[in-house]
Amino acid sequence: MNTMVLTKTADDISSMRVRGAGRIARTAAAALQEYGASLDSKTLAEFITEMEKAAVILRGTRPTAVSLPNAIRHVMRGVQKAETLVEAQRALHDCATEFIRDSHAAVDKIADITARQIPDDAVIMTHCNSQAAIAGIIRAHEQGKVREVYATEVRPRNQGYLTIQALSDAGISVSFIVDSAARMFMPKVDQVITGTDAIMSNGAVVNKIGTSQIALCAHEARKPFIVAAETYKFAPRTILGERIPIEWRSAEEVIGSERVLPANVTVKNPAFDVTPPAYVDLIVTEIGAFAPSYAPFIIRDHLGWNISEFQKDYTYSYY
Ligand code: RUB
Question: Are 161 and 300 part of one and the same domain?
Fold first, then answer.
């Protein structure tokens, strides 16, 4: 049994060595696959028990990205339906492979559909570091449509540096700005494109802290705010009124380890915020581009969560 793959993956995700909702999902799926292949379970029940324990460990690593429980659920679905040990082992392998393959294909498709939304000679603003959003911007650049991208710094973890590197590597002109300069530059921008960690059934978008301020500025300046999201970023249980937990991270991320704060001061470091659907113009997925009000239909018609699925699933410990 290879518990190393589990502990290392869990640590990589919680410490953000692996970060970004899509990458987190694929890494967890691969870890479950590798862990399952290393088990020497003698019975189906034993195998399922071990796999469910592994799912719980991975599920607990970062609370906000719904891609993580959605990936785990996809991979575990075949295991839970299997009638023999061999069937469960094969299902685990196949479901994980399928999830990873489809996830990459989804980002590629989103790049095409996002590029179609980008006008000629476009100036775009983006926030944080989203593979899906960046893929769309790069695809539009390949079509000769991008003049410039404004990329924010993304305090406190500075994911903006990853974004400017990716855009620069693709040959795109970039203006790097501090987060608080977003409103000042908004009039120069044609549209904003970000990724997301979770989309609620009412179309609200959960993404890196600061996203909602940028969406508000875009709304004020009447600039389209576009979200690039694989369909596994939709959060089925929000249909039932469940909220997306917002991850709060350490004070050290904000002030460093050396600084001593004055008395009576605490640091508050939420990693994500919620952008209301009224400030979201379009959600681009691999199956098409939708208004946020279409979110419940994606959850029902594409992800297959109907009433009976919710009832059956209510006992799942990792979702
Ligand atoms: C990353 C972040 C990204 C989304 C979407 O936050 O907010 O915008 O995860 O990314 P963190 P992707 O750095 O805290 O993980 O499109 O790559 O899934």
Answer: yes
314 part of a folded domain: no
Q: What is the DSSP string of 233-284?
A: GB-GGGGGTPPPPPPB--THHHHTTT--PPTT-----BSEEEE-GGG--EEE
What's the 19 CA to ligand 1 centre distance in angstroms? 7
Residue carrying the six token digits 């937990």: 245
Ligand 1 mean position, distance from CA 109 (Å): 18
Confidence at residue 311, expressed as pLDDT on a 0 to 100 scale:
67
Q: To test the ligand 1 pocket, which listed residue (12, 18, 159, 275) has its Cβ within 8 A of the most ligand atoms?
A: 159
Give the pairing of strands 288-290 and 282-285.
antiparallel
The pTM is what? 0.95
Residues 35 and 114 in one domain: no
Domain end marker among 47, 72, 106: 106
102 shares its domain with 149: no
- Domain residues for the domain of 41 are 4-106
pLDDT of residue 302: 93
Three-class SS of residue 143?
coil
128 annotated active-site: yes
Give pLDDT, residue 180.
98
Asked if residue 272 and residue 149 are part of one domain, the reply reads yes
Looking at the predicted structure, is the pLDDT value of residue 314 above 70?
no
What distance in Å separates the CA atoms of residue 60 and residue 52, rounded to the nearest whole number? 12
Choosing from 196, 246, 253, 274 the residue with most ligand 1 atoms within 8 A of its CB, the one to mutate for a pocket test is 196
Please check the confidence at residue 95 and state whether its pLDDT lies above 70. Answer: yes
Local confidence band at 236 (pLDDT 50, 70, 90 cut-offs): very high
pLDDT tens figures, 193-212: 999 999 999 999 999 999 99
Same domain? 57 vs 112: no
Is residue 170 in a domain? yes
Active site residue 197: yes
> In this model, does residue 176 exceed pLDDT 80?
yes
Distance 176 CA to ligand 1 centre (A): 18
Please compute the mean of the pLDDT values over residues 59-69 and round it to a whole number: 96
- Shared domain for 53 and 119, answered yes or no, is no
**Candidate list 95, 120, 128, 313, residue with the active-site label:** 128
Is the C-beta atom of 210 inside 6 A of ligand 1?
Answer: no
Choosing from 40, 121, 179, 197, the catalytic residue is: 197
Closest C-alpha to 5, from 36, 50, 48: 36
Which of 61, 77, 106 corresponds to the end of one domain?
106
